[in-house]
Amino acid sequence: MKMSKNKEKKFRVSYYKTFKEPATKTIIYVVLIGIGYAYLYPLLYMITSSFMSVEDLVNPTVVWIPTKFTLDNFVRAWKVLEMPKALWNSVYTSAIPALAQSLITALIAYGLSRFEFPLKRFWIVLMLATFLIPTQVTLVTKYVLFSTLRLTDTIFATFLPAIFGQGIRSAIFILLYLNFFNMLPKAIDEAAEIDGANTFQIFYKIILPLSLPAIVTTFIFSLVWYWNETLLSGLLLGNKIKTLPLELRDFVVRYAVMFPTADGSAANRINEGIRMAATMITILPLLITYLFLQRQFVESLERTGITGE
């Protein structure tokens, strides 16, 4: 009787390994492929369309691979976007605030993690409210504030909020750092205090180097959000400092001005290939940045626990 039960148990285990595990893996792979396709399809479509000529775009038999690769779409998009100037504006209005936000939010989170003060929970809830309230609700008041301070149409409209911990989605970065600092034992701070280090020395000599994974995560997300921001940037920076996303927003109007079609020719009319080329130029710097930082980014996500592990 015992032998039969053991055989039945072994049979069930072998059945599970033979059928259940491959089926589970197949389902997981199908789901992952489907999700990957949903995310990659727009990017692949953008790349292929940007290299297509007008003849290929109107030819229903040409789907993915152009019959003849052309760079005319990129040449025209480059001119309309005013690429060198717009790229420089995008770089310094995104990279500098992202770096400042990464450091300032770390300092704020360190204070919340290591020190006790009156109404601490209230300030944390108030900080979360700045993230939960939609940007459109405070848009008018922000413009009135910066206009009163005469900071509109200047780079300080972007720099100052990041320096004072009120940059784009700063609250979520403070929470990320707070979770990371809470995992660090306070014995590290106590040992440094015994060696004579003050609070600020402990922060930038010990805590910041240990927080490199969180800093990388914060910087990349902050860079992407600052780069793609058009609502606040268009309102506060105006037409004096136009970034690539702002140029892309006005791309159709500017193209019509630079390449008029008064002669009735279809050669200068904007087409889907030119639109895709302009979009590709706009997101290309972010793709290059991610390619260089992808290893550090993946490792930082694992160490900061942002994946939920």
From TrEMBL:
The keyword Transport belongs to this UniProt entry's keyword annotation: yes
Pfam families: BPD_transp_1 (PF00528)
Signal peptide: none
Annotated Gene Ontology cellular component terms: plasma membrane
Protein's cellular compartments: Cell membrane
Membrane topology (UniProt): Multi-pass membrane protein
Residue stretches in coiled coil: none
Record's protein name: Carbohydrate ABC transporter membrane protein 2, CUT1 family
Source organism (scientific name): Fervidobacterium pennivorans (strain DSM 9078 / Ven5)
Lineage, uppermost ranks: Bacteria, Thermotogati, Thermotogota, Thermotogae, Thermotogales
